[in-house]
Amino acid sequence: MNASESARPSAARGHRQSALRARPSGGRTAAAVTALVVGGLAAGWPVTQAAAATGCAVTYTTSDWAGGFSASVTIQNLGDAVNGWTLGFRFPDSGQAVTSGWSATWSQSGQDVTARNLDWNAAIPTGGSVSVGFNGAWSGSNPKPAAFTLNGVTCTGSTGTASPSVSPSASPSASPSASPTASPTASPTVSPSASPSASPSASPSASPTTGTPTVAADGTGRYRTVQAAIDAVPTGNASRKVITIKPGTYREIVTIPANKPYITLQGLGSSPRDVVIVNNHNADVYGTFNSATAFVNGHDAALTNLTISNDYVENSTTVGQQAVALNLNADRSVLSNVRLLGDQDTFLVNASARAYMSGSYVEGTVDFIFGDGTIVIDNSDIYEKRSTGAPITAARTDPAKTYGFLIYRSRITGATANTTQLGRPWGPSAQVLYRESTLSSTIKTSQPWTDMSGNSWKNARFFEYKNTGAGAGVNSNRPQMSDAQAANYTPQRYLAGSDGWRPIG
């Protein structure tokens, strides 16, 4: 660490302390419902599409590796609003099985598979959709199901081939050469659970075939900006409001206020790259917390298939300058197939937040996942883009809070080898667990945790459990959880809280 780097912890802390003071306060039957089973369009995976009964069409996509695969399902409603849905299909081969799922309650009986809504995505308005997915195992062969049912109505028809589109998983254009390995298309042979960017909740590959997008920068939607659509949601709304966003770049500051819960922001592109919400505020002018491009404060918020970016660029005179992409205060929030892009302090998870992130991508330089909230980052890609490396996390978990950050079944990569730390303690009782994840050679194997502003990493609650990859290992500087401890540090335990919230199966 050079002189400027060693000085950074105190400077970073100073920005955050000032920012804390400035924190913002935060008539149709079921046959008229369409199920779109999507997942790897953007990754160029083979796609089979079925033209089905009136009002219903199905696309099923997988990403396969030896003995395993991932799939993603998006249910789009072209009829009247529904509240509660069940999707069913039958595996053609007896060796196929769902091993884990996300954003739905998954069950299997023999070869029959059922996915049922969770509380946060039960309602599907006209023209809206929800997205779910699963990891699976196969033996013998892995053919695609030929028929699906949605709320008991069968959707069948002739099959065709859809054209693949551009992969969402490459690194952002701001640093095209920075993350060749960071993409969610990590080699499936490394970790079957890592299901390459078959992002757990990919959105439809195109805009709804009927209806108007809520937001379109070109004027073809009801609103030209995302914020205008949020502003139109009634205060104190008691049901989910899905704001669909047409592909485009939206340079604005977006705030979902605390008095507007149950809002979904959903990109309508073929990948999260197609919808970009971006700005360039920075801590020097706005304070760390106020520098965010997006503030999500209303509980039960959901973000899917879009990018949130802070494109403020550090230079030789501004190294260590925080610039937040997403400031998350919302409890029970779900982020799926989302890209969060920034430099230092990309993603802030505040104390009021419990969040589940899946099938997503986060990149930055220093402390780019930080805060005192609780989050599970599942089946996602985390990329350290600075050539000299830096800590990925900076947690400030309250001592009375059992759970802080869980990085689960994810892939950690970086621009250079042996330079990146797993984290450092912004608060003395910071709690971070990297569990069953693939750590690339970017991790500093001899010393993957480091101190921060007088807080010793040795006093923090830092652990690893069953990680793999070139950056994994065990030594005196790498505390490992026992099996007995790990039984209490599952994604479900992190997220349950006092209300039993269960966004994953």
From TrEMBL:
Q: What are the record's GO terms for cellular component?
A: cell outer membrane
Family classification: Belongs to the pectinesterase family.
- Among the record's GO biological process terms, what is one? cell wall modification
Q: Tell me, what is one Gene Ontology molecular-function annotation carried by this entry?
A: polysaccharide binding
Q: Which SMART domains match?
A: CBD_II
> Domain CBM2: where?
49-158
* Xref: InterPro entries: CBD2, CBM2/CBM3_carb-bd_dom_sf, CBM2_carb-bd_dom_sf, Pectin_lyas_fold, Pectin_lyase_fold/virulence, Pectinesterase_Asp_AS, Pectinesterase_cat
> What is the name attached to this protein's record?
Pectinesterase
Could you tell me the EC number(s) of this protein? Answer: 3.1.1.11
Q: Which UniProt keywords apply?
A: Aspartyl esterase, Hydrolase
Which PANTHER family does the record associate with it?
A: ACYL-COA THIOESTER HYDROLASE YBHC-RELATED, PECTINESTERASE 53-RELATED
Region feature (Disordered): 1-25, 158-220
According to UniProt, this protein's pathway is: Glycan metabolism; pectin degradation; 2-dehydro-3-deoxy-D-gluconate from pectin: step 1/5
Note whether Hydrolase occurs among the keywords: yes
List the catalytic residues: 367
Reaction catalysis annotation: [(1->4)-alpha-D-galacturonosyl methyl ester](n) + n H2O = [(1->4)-alpha-D-galacturonosyl](n) + n methanol + n H(+)
What segments bear the compositional bias annotation Low complexity?
Answer: 158-217
Enzyme class, first EC level, given as a word: hydrolase
